[in-house]
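Feature request, filed as a ticket because there's no other form

It would be nice if the structure record came with a short human-readable summary line next to the tokens. Right now we just get the raw output. Example of a typical job, pasted below so the devs can see what we mean:
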Amino acid sequence: MPSFEAYVAVLAVTVVTTLGLTPLVRRLSVRLGAVVKPDERRVHERPTPTLGGVAMMGGLVAGMTVAWRLDGFDEVFAGNTEPLGVLAAGLLILAVGVIDDLREVSAPAKLAGIVVSASVLVISGVSLLVLRVPFQGTFLLSPDWSYLVSVLWVVGMTNAINLIDGLDGLAAGIVAIAAGTFFLYALQLTDAGLLQAGNVGPLLAVIIVGMCLGFLPWNRHPARIFMGDGGALLLGLLMAASTMVVGGRTDQPFSGQSFFFFAPLLIPLLILGVPILDTLLAIVRRATRRTGVATADKDHLHHRLMRLGHGHWRSVLILWAWTALLSGFVLYPTYSGRGDGIVPIGIAALLLALFTILHPSLRGSRPDSQAAPAGAGDRGFAEQGHPE
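Raw output as currently delivered:
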């Protein structure tokens, strides 16, 4: 079983590699013309390179390589096709995103690329095997159902991360918090004997944290580079892979008697509550307006926060704080063994408060021109380089 120090070593190498590669990729982006210019649809005010996902992929490769060379991860790599499958699927979905960054790809074509990447994951062994439905019991999935549910899981995660990538540092920060939380949760499952020592999920989670921490110094406002669709899709696929091999392999309840709350697949849905809520609101909003689901608009959570009068950086901090709060609710009973009864109610209250504050029909009507901070109105609260 890997020691905590081994995970720290992998984290450090991933951070340093991503941090060092990002300025090189930034120069390459400029040379290739992969630069997003400001326009009325976007928030940023100067041309910004958009191939940051390539540097994040470098961090992933470095982290996996170091883990492969460390003795503590022998059980993760020995006779296991999952790590190679993750790298292959990561390269494939990165290519899909980069092509979309360079020349806009149609929504069906991008979806096809995501499905193919998810299929590579499943073929390598990264898939949901067990599905626990609250109040309905545990289901051992047949190969057909395992493939279908796994692909849908990847499609959902990648789109959720891609949609929330609308302000400098927002997606990287939220994913770093969520992955860090999931890593600590997976360690508890391992210590309790509910996960096999060779499970690749905790390793993927800690590498995701390293990729985001190494990229954030270059992506914080005002961003010097965007992760682009390549980076957002890559992070979504890795989060999906990590959560599938942890949540989809555990058929035992954990931390007390609360079967509903600790169904393992609910944990990633809760710690990624902000982007998932944003995705659900976007689907409902666009269906109501009878526009395409992939049609960009300016009503994401971060746009609404800015219309409420928060600036760019403060809006990012608020959404980071919501993610941290949801993550804290998940981890408290996991580590303390208490609070199973009240935590679901607390999380429901938090999500209801977030929905109430940000839903346009529930908060008071406030003209954008009055709510906007000085200067922000000029940018039209539009989206970042490639939010969708």
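Something like this underneath would help us a lot:
The beta strands are 35-36, 48-49, 130-133, 137-140.
The chain has a mean pLDDT of 82.
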